[in-house]
Amino acid sequence: MGTFEKCIFLGCILALAGITLFSHPDHHESKVIQEPWGIPCDDRHPCQSGCCSHSGICGVGPEYCGADTCIDCRTRARPRSKTSHLRRFVGYYELWSADRPCNRMAAFELPSATYAHVNLAFITIDPTTFEVVPIPAAHANAIQRFTQRKKYDPDLRVFVTVSGLAPHDWSKPDASVFSRLARSDAHQTVFLRSLTSFISTYDIDGVDINWEHPDGFSDDYENLPKLMQNIRSALLLTGGRYGLSMTLPVSLPNLHHYNLRRLPRYVDYFNLMPLDLHSQLQMGDTWQGQSLGPVVNMTQVEEAMDLLWRNHVMPDNVNFGIALYSASLVPADRECTHVGCPALSGATPGFSSLKQGMLMNSEVQDLMDPAFHERAHGRLYHRHDWGSRALQYSVLDADAGVRISQNKHQWIAYEDRETLEKKLESARDLGFGGVVVWAMSHDTYNADYTKVLDCLLEEKFHRRKSLQYHYCNEIQLHQV
């Protein structure tokens, strides 16, 4: 090799070395993605995700994101809006609700032109084959009744919610199913073929993903956006069934395990679910905090929002979660019954939901007027012993934004029109693009809470809908 050729060869080597050493950090995205935590940070070098501790290391959890130990490397002013129209009105429907002994709500009982999006919950994933688990005939019939409503309600879109629950026991979350799915291209191929076949068979408009939750200790953090990207790509091939949404928890320890920088690229909107923080208490669960409190705590919602805004998630792409069920708890001390007092446990299950620690709103209404429940559902199969369960009074806790009532068995925090209006005002001020309800199947016999929300969204928050059905004069909520 001559001198000239050697010079050219050495020049190429030096050029390549320079590119490798001095290229923009974005070119090394794969390395950053693999190791998002434990990276040095300061005010000039913010964390890609998570928070910068006082020791100068990126991470998540209380030691990083507590009020006294966090350097917010991406401080942004909290968005405020008085013009948000809360244009999306999303409701979850429990496909198993027909199995309740009473207070059931069938698809045909839902008032027309209320919810613009109905999320049918749930379908699950077979942990062995990774196909969608076949649904019972009763669930298929309920899905068909909802999709038939699209013929006369032009605003209605029907999604199906894919959950990480155990296929044959929905009381048990199984986060490992989504974890194994997200890290395997072969499993995703099987799952996406099964999913697109399912939504085509039942005329579904889109998919809602409910992973409870990425564990934060494996590769879930980076695999979840890739999974959502692949789901989006598969939906684009279905000929119009493009919708894709995702639930997010309000719990900061869980929320930090979602890659909030990348997920918005593939999702139409997020459903923020500030639920189950105080109801259905489990021993040793420090986040749910064994204290008396409402299902939806606005302080915790705002903390979750701050994390979203810092990660550049647009508030208009998030729906604010509203519960159509109430916290039902046993105070640890009968002399301390205000919000924040210790709770001993969840209270006795309701006659319909049969779940400790919560009451569906329809069950709260039953406690206010047991005779109405008997008339609505018939006396033959409803010989409930109401006894000392009936509610005789209620007080408004303005700070907590909820009504409080008690009987000898339970402490109940529930919603009425006034508290719902306050929550919608807070959602508007925070810039939310819509509201999401869990669950429409918790509503009363006359769907009164759905009508309240529809009325408020239309009259107070200027929501527009194609069918001009108005329900403000049909609401029959009981008061004590």
3D architecture notes:
Helix 6 packs across helix 7 (220-235) and helix 12 crosses helix 13. Among the domains are: 33-75, 2-Layer Sandwich (Wheat Germ Agglutinin (Isolectin 2), domain 1); 88-323 and 417-459, TIM Barrel. Strands 4-5-6-9-10-11-12-19 form an eight-stranded parallel β-barrel. Strands 13, 14, 15, 16, 17 and 18 form a six-stranded antiparallel beta sheet that branches. The protein has helices at 3-22, 29-34, 62-65, 137-148, 175-182, 185-201, 220-235, 252-255, 298-310, 361-368, 370-377, 417-429, 448-459; strands at 51-53, 58-59, 70-71, 88-94, 117-124, 157-163, 165-166, 169-173, 206-210, 243-249, 269-273, 318-323, 325-331, 343-346, 358-360, 395-397, 402-406, 411-414, 434-438. It is an alpha/beta fold and 480 residues long. The radius of gyration is 25 Å and the shape is globular. The longest helix has 20 residues, at 3-22. Mean pLDDT is 82; it is low at 12-37 and 277-287. It contains 13 helices and 19 strands.
